[in-house]
Amino acid sequence: MQFNVALLATALLVSASPALSAVVTFFAGSGCTGQVVGQSTDLPPNDCLTAGSGSARSIGYSGVPNEIFFFESGGAHDTCTNGAQATFGGGSGCSTAPDG
Questions:
Q1: Has residue 93 got a pLDDT over 80?
Q2: For 5, how many CA atoms within 13 A lie in the half-sphere containing its CB?
Q3: Is residue 68 part of a domain?
Q4: Is-annotated flag, keyword Signal (predicted)?
Q5: What is the phi/psi pair of residue 65, to 5°?
Q6: How many domains does the chain have?
Q7: What is the pLDDT of residues 9-54, one digit of tens each?
Q8: Taking residues 64-75, what's their average pLDDT?
Q9: Less crowded by CB within 10 Å, the N or C end of the chain?
């Protein structure tokens, strides 16, 4: 499975500190490797990001003050609703789309 950058690369950033902003980078390969296919910088806290078109196998993030949520593409989960597919704590990390 790949993240659909148009719809799934929706990331909701939850933060208590508006001074920090996050960077989200979309990669063609798993484990945040391979070609960078997109990037969003200076994301404010509590923002729901839906990036352009295409797909990404993994999404890297940095500068997340509290938590970041990833939502499944399509249907009831678009626009950061109805439960996240994955939740990660603050800081930096990488999320690879599940197999399938």
A1: yes
A2: 20
A3: yes
A4: yes
A5: -70, -30
A6: 1
A7: 334 434 334 445 788 898 989 999 999 988 888 877 777 776 556 6
A8: 79
A9: C
